[in-house]
């Protein structure tokens, strides 16, 4: 038990109110200095574009308690940059990288007691969001915007941690070829609720989306990116303009190439050629690395390494990534903001 009387061993991925969150408003062309508040309710105009037209985006990143008691924030500059790209797509003002990172640091410091202890496997998940607010009714960009960051302590996203999970290929699309798939915007997730629900009803961890143009190539695994290890030992991950550029995935690409000496490739992963791969996984801030046991496509379950055991390459990638995040291994330059 930690100082907040939380049982760190049973933490999953659920909302709990923490002490303070950060809020900043954009009015008349500028963000204010921002402040911390105890209030976890958002008071906005009923005409807010975020409510009617989905003009909003969000991010997800984590802070980790290290063995020496210090705190590691993992690659917040990448989340700031991705939020700026989401804002471009939805005609919203950028939150500058410096203010974004400062907001995250303030929230971590203010909720330090909620950070799961080193060794518990947990972390503090930060959820920045930026939404269109203010009085409005027409389909246009909002007159004002609100940026906030809150946090929750989390454990494993998919129950079982490094235990393989099975996924099912969805008949739905999460994105259109020139749509908003590459932006982290709520509309994509609203559209994923029904496919995700149907997959879970069939006892799968989530669903796999194919490319919306040809429906022949893997794009995403629920709210995570996909990677596989091919029979030549290469790290392979899909490249497409309609998937979200996962910060975890790009970190794994770097780790595979520069630390594990593997060949890497961003390219096509055809759903009817899964035999070419010996291991597969889902990766993301929340999912970390979730080994994929099997993929159900049409009426066949294709099993990769095993439905019960994580594969050896996936485990090495996981150990290296977590070692960097928890401060046990030296991080590549610029990956960690020390708090
Ligand atoms: C649709 C989708 N794909 C992939 C990811 C993984 O991205 P990241 O590694 O930056 O968390 C996420 C989560 O942010 C997501 O929502």
UniProtKB/TrEMBL annotation:
GO biological process: amino acid biosynthetic process; branched-chain amino acid biosynthetic process
Pfam families given in the database record: Aminotran_4
Protein name: Branched-chain-amino-acid aminotransferase
Stored NCBIfam families: ilvE_II (TIGR01123), PRK13357.1 (NF009897)
Cofactor: pyridoxal 5'-phosphate
Residues annotated with N6-(pyridoxal phosphate)lysine modification: 184
Record CDD domains: BCAT_beta_family
Keywords: Amino-acid biosynthesis, Aminotransferase, Branched-chain amino acid biosynthesis, Pyridoxal phosphate, Transferase
UniProt catalytic activity: L-leucine + 2-oxoglutarate = 4-methyl-2-oxopentanoate + L-glutamate; L-valine + 2-oxoglutarate = 3-methyl-2-oxobutanoate + L-glutamate; L-isoleucine + 2-oxoglutarate = (S)-3-methyl-2-oxopentanoate + L-glutamate
UniProt entry tagged with the keyword Transferase: yes
Superkingdom in the source lineage: Bacteria
Pathway stated in the Swiss-Prot or TrEMBL entry: Amino-acid biosynthesis; L-isoleucine biosynthesis; L-isoleucine from 2-oxobutanoate: step 4/4; Amino-acid biosynthesis; L-leucine biosynthesis; L-leucine from 3-methyl-2-oxobutanoate: step 4/4; Amino-acid biosynthesis; L-valine biosynthesis; L-valine from pyruvate: step 4/4
């Amino acid at each position: 038990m930690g100082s907040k009387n939380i049982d760190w061993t049973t933490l999953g991925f659920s909302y709990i109110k923490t002490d303070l969150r950060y809020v900043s408003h954009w009015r008349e062309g500028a963000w204010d200095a921002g402040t911390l508040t105890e209030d976890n309710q958002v008071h906005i105009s009923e005409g807010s574009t975020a409510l009617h037209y989905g003009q909003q985006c969000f991010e997800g990143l984590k802070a980790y308690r290290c063995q020496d008691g210090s705190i590691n924030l993992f690659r917040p500059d990448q989340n700031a940059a991705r939020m700026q790209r989401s804002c471009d797509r939805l005609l919203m003002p950028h939150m500058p990288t410096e203010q974004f990172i400062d907001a995250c640091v303030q929230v971590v410091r203010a909720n330090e007691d909620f950070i799961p202890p080193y060794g518990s496997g947990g972390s503090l998940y930060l959820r920045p969001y930026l939404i269109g607010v203010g009085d409005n009714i027409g389909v246009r960009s909002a007159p004002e915007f609100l940026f906030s960051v809150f946090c929750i302590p989390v454990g494993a996203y998919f129950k079982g941690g490094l235990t393989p999970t099975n996924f099912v290929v969805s008949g739905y699309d999460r994105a259109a070829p020139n749509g908003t798939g590459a932006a982290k915007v709520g509309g994509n997730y609203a559209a994923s609720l029904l496919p995700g629900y149907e997959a879970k009803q069939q006892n799968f961890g989530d669903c796999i989306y194919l490319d919306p143009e040809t429906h022949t190539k893997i794009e995403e695994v629920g709210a995570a990116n996909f990677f596989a290890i091919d029979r030549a030992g290469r790290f392979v991950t899909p490249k497409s303009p309609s998937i979200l550029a996962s910060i975890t995935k790009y970190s794994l690409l770097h780790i595979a190439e520069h630390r594990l000496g593997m060949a890497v490739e961003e390219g096509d992963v055809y759903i009817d050629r899964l035999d070419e791969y010996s291991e597969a996984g889902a990766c993301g801030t929340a999912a970390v690395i979730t080994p994929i046991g099997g993929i159900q496509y049409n009426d066949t379950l294709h099993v990769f390494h095993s439905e019960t055991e994580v594969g050896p390459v996936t485990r090495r990638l996981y150990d290296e990534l977590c070692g960097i995040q928890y401060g046990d291994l030296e991080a590549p330059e610029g990956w960690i903001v020390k708090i």
